[in-house]
Amino acid sequence: MTRLVIPFLTATLLAFGAAAKAATADSAKPNIVFIFADDWGWGDLSCHGHPYVKTPNIDRLAREGTDFQRFTVASGVCSPSRAAVMTGHFPARYHIDGHFAWVPQNEKRGMPDWLDPKAPTLPRMLGSAGYATAHFGKWHLGNDMIPDSPTPAAYGYDEYGAFNCSGEQMPVHEDARHAIAFMEKSVTAKKPFFINLWLHEPHTPFHTVPKYEWRFR
Question: Which CATH superfamily is domain 3-20+32-216 in?
């Protein structure tokens, strides 16, 4: 099966029309892994010229996939950018102009407490085209402080493991392991897959593995 891995390093508005057209074509459907890093600047990669951060695996994805050099973003803030990616709409359409917080704070800013589950979403579109869909990693289109907020399943994902959402919280560093398992399961089932892999890093707080600490002294 053809594999398509696209690293999106900032919030990017996805062209749903093109994706839907490609997904319904008679040719083999590409697998899609959408990598979305939290607070990761475009220049924070060695392939984009960072003086000391080394990112060899992401550099390889950039070489072998699609590395956007010119683009625009719908928002530079967490929750609005995620809403834009999920829906293909400007987040203002859903009154989302800041990160989802506790109910009084959302109300003070004129925001809802979560993204409207009735909004059109990429996983629903790809699911209707025969894809197995999954979300792993940070969510923040609701909040773990609001127990009755919808989970990723309400937006069209067949499977998910997440944090910053209601319900059980997946440990931050297990997102990649879950994504790999979902890939393997989908390949065994001979079904194209779409994985939303929303990483926590490099959001604060900053920690490093002890063996790499010397790089930052």
Answer: Alkaline Phosphatase, subunit A (3.40.720.10)
